[in-house]
Specification:
Elements: H1 2-8, E1 15-19, H2 21-36, E2 48-52, H3 79-86, E3 90-95, H4 129-136, E4 142-147, H5 153-158, E5 162-165, E6 185-190, H6 193-203, E7 232-236, H7 237-241, H8 247-262, E8 266-270, H9 275-293, H10 311-322, H11 325-338, H12 343-367, E9 370-374, H13 385-388, H14 390-395, H15 401-405, E10 410-413, E11 421-424, H16 430-440
Parallel strand pairs: 2-3, 2-4, 7-8, 7-9
Antiparallel strand pairs: 1-3, 4-6, 5-6, 5-10, 9-11, 10-11
The structure holds glutamine (GLN).
Length: 441
């Protein structure tokens, strides 16, 4: 714990203001005592981990990397985090991310851009960039990110580690600051499939505080060792044929397909929605949901209030001074697609498309056991580039957002392409995803 805290300290761009030193050291001492007394310890006991700064941890600042919540202290602890603490894992740090999860590069933050673990000139990915980089650099053993449209999978891919977006509802969202509630997922980031499995097991389960959760059974270690029941793998033809895909990513992905075939598995090309449709559907719904979710942040109950002549003015100044350009863009966009005259044409159409996307997945999983995809069409951009062109940044999410809309379990593994490979299965089949990842290793 001490060693990791010392490593974290100078790397302020991965972390936010609250390194949890004292708590961590005290917890570690207790584990030491247990070991000294010859008492048995659990799998996660004494294991240092990091937490994206969008999770409530009682008594710590939870800023969402925003000025608005710079001084906000959590009043309670998120269910997923509480379960890890109960299992004896040691929280070291709250981690830098795109403000409120809004972004794909971890540059939309008041704490400075997160630098890629492999090349500091490149972005760390987003929005859970600090979490991915901390794991990649061994500053934490695992970190808990949040994935609404790719925020665990994409930074995991950019830093060549594992990141899982579990089936929506497998892990409680209680205490995760809401971005787009219908796709928000708690997701572990780690250096091995085994670590992902252990952390997933601990965090999963029904929670009365999140009515979208469901009961799931533990994934046993030996359950993911034998992949004999995986007979057919699919991939989306249009992702590979897209003009937007980087030549190397395409080449590596195609050779991954050949490797899978060589292992005796049938690989099928599938039809899917175009990148533009996926990205517009996702952003329409995500912006609508975030406009609604963030409406409570007006300086009354939460947030750095700026007083003005009247209440309306105060709301307005508090929000315009304290929210980032990217977050404001999404709130304005979200309110527009929800407003009278636009909602039928845009928001309802987005919902209808989402149903079609889900239906498409259901049909696919009658034909294949697993779907694979590159994580991103392009390599990680240089720091500064994504900020210049928000639309290009949205389009870079083309391969991750579909699986979010489908609420499917999807894992990034650090092989297959330069930015990794996504492995997806039907809803609640998280075990199959880990199994196939293990098989490909
Ligand atoms: N980049 C996507 C967005 O900005 C995904 C973010 C996330 O999953 N939190 O919406």
């Amino acid at each position: 714990v001490k060693e990791k805290l010392a490593l974290l300290k100078p790397n302020t761009h991965n972390t936010v203001n609250s390194l949890l030193d004292e708590t961590a050291i005290n917890l570690a001492k207790k584990v030491d005592e247990k070991i000294a007394n010859g008492e048995p310890i659990g799998l996660l006991e004494g294991i240092p981990f990091g937490i994206k700064d969008v999770y409530m941890v009682e008594g710590t600042y939870t800023t969402a990397s925003s000025t608005l919540l710079k001084n906000y202290k959590s009043a309670y602890t998120a269910t997923a985090i509480k379960k890890l603490l109960d299992a004896g894992a040691i929280p070291l740090v709250k981690e830098n991310c795109d403000s409120f999860g809004h972004g794909s590069s971890s540059e939309n933050t008041i704490f400075g851009a997160v630098k890629n673990a492999k090349n500091p000139e490149l972005v760390g990915g987003g929005s859970s960039g600090g979490s991915a980089v901390n794991v990649a650099k061994n500053f934490t053993v695992f970190s808990i990110g949040g994935d609404t449209g790719g925020s665990v999978r994409q930074p995991a891919g950019y830093n060549s580690i594992y990141g899982l977006k579990p089936t929506y509802g497998r892990i409680s969202r209680y205490g995760l600051m809401a971005y787009a509630s219908s796709t928000d997922c708690v997701g572990p980031i780690a250096k091995s499939i085994e670590d992902i499995r252990i952390v997933l097991n601990v965090m999963s389960g029904k929670d009365v505080k999140d009515q979208t959760t469901y009961a799931s059974s533990k994934i046993e270690q030996n359950a993911i060792l034998n992949a004999e029941n995986i007979k057919t793998v699919g991939y989306f033809k249009n992702f590979v044929d897209s003009k937007a895909i980087d030549e190397n990513i395409k080449k590596d992905f195609l050779s991954t397909i050949e490797n899978i075939k060589a292992k005796g598995i049938e690989v099928k090309a599938l039809d899917f929605f175009e990148a533009d449709t996926l990205v517009s559907t996702y952003y329409t719904l995500a912006m609508a949901e975030t406009a609604s979710n963030l409406s409570r942040l007006d300086g009354t109950n939460y947030g750095n209030r700026i007083d003005a002549d009247n209440l309306k003015e105060s709301y307005s100044i508090t929000r315009s001074e304290n929210l980032s350009e990217e977050t404001k863009r999404r709130i304005v966009g979200g309110n527009q697609v929800l407003s009278q005259g636009f909602s039928d044409e845009i928001y309802l159409k987005g919902l209808a498309l989402r149903d079609q996307i889900s239906q498409n997945f259901e049909n696919d999983f009658n034909e294949v056991d697993i779907i694979i995809s590159p994580v991103t069409p392009m390599a990680p951009p240089k720091i500064g580039d994504s900020l210049k062109d928000p639309l290009a940044m949205y389009l870079s999410d083309a391969y991750t957002v579909g699986f979010s809309l489908g609420q499917l379990p999807t894992l990034t593994v650090p092989n297959g392409t330069e930015t990794g490979l996504q492995i997806t299965a039907a809803k609640n089949n998280d075990e199959l995803v880990l199994k196939f990842a293990n098989f490909l290793k």
